Amino acid sequence: MFKIRDVIIEPPLVLAPVAGHTDSLFRQAVKGLGGCGLVVSELVSTEGMTRHHARTHHLTHFVEAERPVSIQIFGSDSARMAESAAMVQEMGADIVDINAGCPVKKVVKQGGGSNLLRDLPLLEKIIKEVRKAIRIPLTIKIRSGWDRNSINAVEVMKLAQDCGVEGLTIHGRTRNELFSGKADWNIIEKVKRQARIPIIGNGDVFSPEDAARMFRETGVDGVMMGRGVLGNPWLIRQCWAHLSGRPVTKTSLKQKANFMKQFLQRVCQDAPPPVALGKMKKIGGYLSKGFPQGARLRAQIHSAHSIEDFFAAMEAYLAESMPAE
Ligand SMILES: Cc1cc2nc3c(=O)[nH]c(=O)nc-3n(C[C@H](O)[C@H](O)[C@H](O)COP(=O)(O)O)c2cc1C
User: Fold this and answer.
1) Average pLDDT of the chain?
2) Where are the alpha helices (DSSP H) in 36-119?
3) What whole-number distance in Å separates Cα of residue 248 and Cα of residue 263?
4) Ligand 1 centroid, distance to 204 Cα (angstroms)
5) Quick one: pLDDT at residue 325?
6) Any ligand 1 atom below 6 A from CB of 213
7) What angle do helix axes 185-194 and 208-218 make, rounded to 10 degrees?
8) Check: CATH 3.40.50.720 for 2-243?
9) Does the annotation count 102 as an active-site position?
10) Ligand 1 atom nearest residue 204's Cα
11) Is 187 touching ligand 1 by the criterion CB < 6 Å?
């Protein structure tokens, strides 16, 4: 357990923000499986929020069962960031998180995301204005630096904590590394060792053993998981069992397939058909990793033209390929 001011994170395991995946439905599903102490929304544009774009309503939506919930905002205009943070507080979120790690070109070009790691005066201005605009806890998510020659996570952490940030997540890759190579956990350990605020470590935790190793090697207060959970929604629950000394129950393919069907049915109820179909293809792609002849299923669902096609392909695959248990 750790706390971000008065927000109790128990267990100390966090579902990462993953744009296009970790919406309220997915977060509810993961939270429902157990072991998850904090969920973070996908990044939400502060341009969109302050201009009242309809899409941002969906992105900021959460339900009580998800609590504690953190809403992540991104942008480069400090006034819009502050206004958006106040809106997030008004919505009743527990934490506001500033995105200073997103490597995507469109975000960086507009000055936000990981661009803030190479523009510390702007980052400082944003943090100070956001801090002034809200009473609830403020956190930040960063990468280790812009590139290998400018790793500055410790400096960024110190700046952030001096400006009133109350928790920091670090993904141990630079902006330019995107998702290549291995996350550098040494920089996570360095940041943790010098911080007064709670630190959440992130990057390449794909198994309960990885999570235990990250706690052990870096001393972090919490561990955040992203891609691992997309392929295995039980990952956080399994990590918690392992960390508590309980046996880890492996998920059977059948359980995974059932989860996939039930979850995808909820996606269809929640969104208009074309949006739901796009989401289902993405989520189905991740969830079917490890299925026998999963590539065949992925090819079929990717070419589905309708929700009916999608489910027909899935049912046919399951009937043919799932071993009887
Ligand atoms: C498709 C995708 C979308 C992501 N979207 C976000 C986002 O909205 N905000 C954010 O802070 N990080 C985002 N991330 C980064 C993850 O939160 C996490 O830092 C990264 O995937 C490393 O953790 P992992 O190895 O457990 O996946 C995204 C990652 C992926 C793969």
Assistant:
1) 95
2) 46-50, 54-60, 78-91, 105-109
3) 23
4) 11
5) 53
6) no
7) 50
8) no
9) yes
10) 25
11) no
User: Which of 26, 72, 171 has most ligand 1 atoms within 8 Å of CB, for mutation?
Assistant: 171
Residue whose Cα lies nearest atom 22 of ligand 1: it is 203
Q: What is the DSSP letter of 149?
A: G
The rounded Cα 83 to chain-centroid distance in angstroms is 23
Please report the pLDDT score of residue 324 as a whole number: 58
| pLDDT digit string, tens, across residues 137-167 | 999 999 999 999 999 999 999 999 999 999 9
Tokens 């796009």 belong to residue = 278
User: From CA 163, how far away is CA 204, in angstroms rounded?
Assistant: 29
Q: 67, 37, 28: which is closest to 237 by C-alpha?
A: 37
Query: 283 vs 61, 260, 298, CA distance in Å?
Result: 19, 8, 10
CA of 102 from ligand 1 middle (Å) equals 8
The pLDDT, as a whole number, for residue 69 is 98
Q: Where are the domains of the chain?
A: 2-243, 253-321
Beta bridge partners of 9: 2
Q: Which residues of the chain fall short of a pLDDT of 70?
A: 322-325
Q: Which tokens in the block code for residue 307? A: 């929700």
The response to whether residue 177 sits with its C-beta less than 6 Å from ligand 1 reads no
Question: Helix 294-302 and helix 273-287: axis angle, to 10°?
Answer: 170
